[in-house]
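Researcher: First entry.
Model:
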Amino acid sequence: MEILQTICQLVVGLGILNVWLLRLKKKTPYRGGDASSIKEEFSVYGLPELLVWVIGAVKVSAALALLIGIALPTLVLPAALVLAVLMLGAIIMHVKVKDPAIKSLPATGIFVLTLFLIFIQSNTQI
């Protein structure tokens, strides 16, 4: 189970870093509406530009915490909780703007993986 947890931490952590650091200004098939960047995507959702940077900083920090959590497991639960809430918010935003379900696939996948990490961490701390 430890190997599966580590794989989940790597997938989630590196996935979030990829989106927020490498693909920030790139068009992907998963952006909300017809947005071609994260900034435009937040605009499609009706969210202020300031939230791009706040949510980005929180997501990048949580992703780094998940990666560091491979060595320091106490970081995993809080990071997974934060990301689960943010991914749920992302899914809700896709629904709000009536995106096709495929657009929320990455957020849904990350949400499921973070729920798995929360479940594993909750059971190991009891």
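Researcher: Second entry.
Model:
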Amino acid sequence: MGKIKVLMLFGPNLNLIGKREKQFYGELSFEELKSEIKAFSEKENIECEFFQSNSEGTLIDKIQQSELIYDYVIINAGAFSHYSIALKDAISSVNLPFLEVHMSNIFAREPFRHKSVISEVCLGQIVGFKEDVYKLALIECQLMNQKN
């Protein structure tokens, strides 16, 4: 079985992890997080590409371009998860399985974070395990790929 290709999409302010709200996002910097994910994915025979933007339109453009390139998309849309209908529409417009992740437990935070509009168009959601949410999502991609 060949490598599966996964796009890791990171939304606004995720480039600041390790600096902001460490109780929710942990100690790793964004670059350290990407290195850890890359090492894990290589060990698991998964090809990962990373893309981060603080711009909603840039994330939408990347989603629209992803359909013929990747097998799965793991998305942490940050605050956009809670209100971006445009991001939801972009996800539902491409024929790709999306997994939504959040490093913090969004259900244990402010009430406005409890609802994710993009979860309605994602296969599932993994929340609350800091940097491990990305590894858990990669494992789920492997499991789905084995079933196909």
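Model: Note on the second entry: The chain has a mean pLDDT of 93.
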